[in-house]
Amino acid sequence: SDPYGRPRLHSETDYARFAKMGFNVVRLPISWARLEPRPGSFVNSYLTGYVNRDVQWAKKYGLYIVLDMHQYKWAYRFGGGGAPDWTVRQYPKSELGMREAISEFWVDNTLQGHLIRVWTEIARKYANEPTIAGYDILNEPWIFTSVIPHLNASCIDAFYQKAIEAIRRVDQNHIIFLEPANMNTWKFPIESKVVWSPHFYPLSFASH
Q1: Residue 77, SS3?
Q2: How does pLDDT run across 30-89, given as a tens digit for each residue?
Q3: Cα separation values, 166 from 15, 114, 150, Å
Q4: CA-CA distance, 87 to 198, in Å (whole number)?
Q5: DSSP characters for 143-193?
Q6: Residue 147 burial by CB count (10 A; 0-12/13-18/19+): exposed, middle or buried?
Q7: 3-state SS assignment for residue 57
Q8: Is 75 helix (H, G, I), strand (E, B) or coil?
Q9: Among 40, 99, 111, which Cα is nearest to 74's?
């Protein structure tokens, strides 16, 4: 089986339905694991065969797309998806292993550099694509202070700053969406075309 999972099936009909319902933007998940399955690689066919298809559908129905570097439970190794397998092989397949992998990412400049390079390549390819509204750098970033005591939201904000600087070198046009660490902001500088995008779920799934 595919260790990184396949993009969930959807079609042009879905975009037509979104437009009819009055929506104007689609948050499209993309996968670091599928974009960089080996260290230093970049799978352009993932963009041409998946993202470009959705861009054309969105364009046809007057919608925008936000590219969302998605993760849940960080990686396939931990029962989720997001980070490539080569970044997490040294960790046990457990909740603690997941916490360790996530925490170590926030202090590993080399590993962060890989994800930033992937984003830079994406931004380079879509810099002049008006159907894409912007880039959501990482879905629901978490820190686990029980693993590395000194971790706090400043570690994630430092990563965001490096990512923004790299993307802006190739793309001055698009909005960059930043999700607060553990739902909390730190002291991130105010910048143009940068949007805070907290995921606030209380009551969303409450029974009636």
Answers
A1: helix
A2: 999 999 999 999 999 999 999 999 999 999 999 999 999 999 999 999 999 999 999 999
A3: 31, 12, 26
A4: 26
A5: --TTTSTT--HHHHHHHHHHHHHHHHTT-SSSEEEEPPBTTB---PPP-TT
A6: middle
A7: helix
A8: strand
A9: 99
